[in-house]
Amino acid sequence: MALEFLNPRMATLRVDAITLDADGVLHRGRTVLPGALDLLHGLNERAIPWQIVTNNSRQTAERAAEHYRSIGLPVRGDQVVTAADATAAYIVGVHAGARRPRVYPLGDADQRACLIAGGCQVTDDEDRAEYVAVGINRHLTYQRLFHACNAIRRGARFVVANLDATVPTETGAIPGAGALAAAIKVATGKDWYAIGKPAPEMMLQALRRMARAPAAALHVGDRLDSDVPAALRAGMATALVTTGEHGREEGLAASGDARPDIIAADLPTVNAWLFRP
Q1: I need a labelling partner for 143 at 20 to 30 A (CA). Which of 19, 47, 52, 85 fits?
Q2: How many whole angstroms separate alpha carbon 14 and alpha carbon 7?
Q3: 170 CB neighbour count, 10 Å cutoff
């Protein structure tokens, strides 16, 4: 399959910044996909900034980068935006006043560490919480969920790292941050502010890091339900590669903010277009 332009302007677009999904685009499991290393090296050689954006709601960017390096991808911590780090950055960015924002974390110990590292003050007191940060937590108790709901009813802002309904594990899919957020929304009647894809917040943070405007930026992903809408809502162009979750026919049939600008079989196809003379 050749590169297919669903948006005619893509044929002549000169990209000056790239955001990338990882699993299904750069790698599958611990296997680096064809064209991934050529893409990263080519971007570096041409001084085109790039960022990996991942819905990981637990890890810091550096820990995520360590994982990518362990499978052979040359990625630095400052080239990754995780939903966990982006949640902390968002809360600190919107918080008024010099004091660090007080955040009630519904996620696990890793999420707490991300919040603290990002400049938040973690609290387990529902009455003092100004924000409730929802992330995946395999050891979540009903009591903790109760306290989070109380904090939100009292006026704490409701922030969720991502809206993933489930997370795959070796023994089956477990409830994700999105499932926990849905339960809180039903219990409190309050809506959330989402950070990870398909929301645009994480993409916008990546663009600010790179000091680039969205008009000439491209996101490369494999999902029509998260990658494509997140990028389009951020004002970016989108390329769907069919090496992951969604294929060519699904991309052609997609509409609205799920419709990509470009469909490519794989990264070598994307590279040939990106690095054309």
Answers
A1: 85
A2: 14
A3: 4
Measure CA 247 to chain center.
Answer: 20
Question: What's domain 86-194's architecture?
Answer: 3-Layer(aba) Sandwich (3.40)
Beta strands in 21-120 (DSSP E): 27-28, 31-32, 50-54, 80-82, 102-105
Long-range contact set of residues 43-46: C-beta below 8 Å, sequence gap at least 24: 43/18, 46/275
Pairing of strands 31-32, 27-28: antiparallel
Interacting residues of 94 by C-beta distance below 8 A, sequence separation 6+: none
- Maximal C-alpha separation, the chain: 60
Range(s) within the chain of domains with CATH label 3.40.50.1000: 4-55+198-274, 86-194
* Per-residue confidence in pLDDT tens, the chain, 277 aa: 578 999 998 888 999 999 999 988 999 888 999 999 999 999 999 999 999 999 888 888 999 999 999 999 999 999 999 999 999 999 999 998 778 999 999 988 889 999 999 999 999 999 999 999 999 888 999 999 999 999 999 999 999 999 988 876 667 778 889 999 999 999 999 999 999 999 999 999 999 999 999 999 999 999 998 999 999 999 999 999 999 888 889 998 999 999 999 999 999 999 999 999 8
- Say how far apart CA 219 and CA 262 lie, in whole Å: 10
Report d(CA 218, CA 52) in Å as an integer: 12
Domain made up of 4-55+198-274: CATH architecture: 3-Layer(aba) Sandwich (3.40)
> Which residues are part of the catalytic machinery?
21, 23
Length of the chain: 277
Residue 53 amino acid letter: V
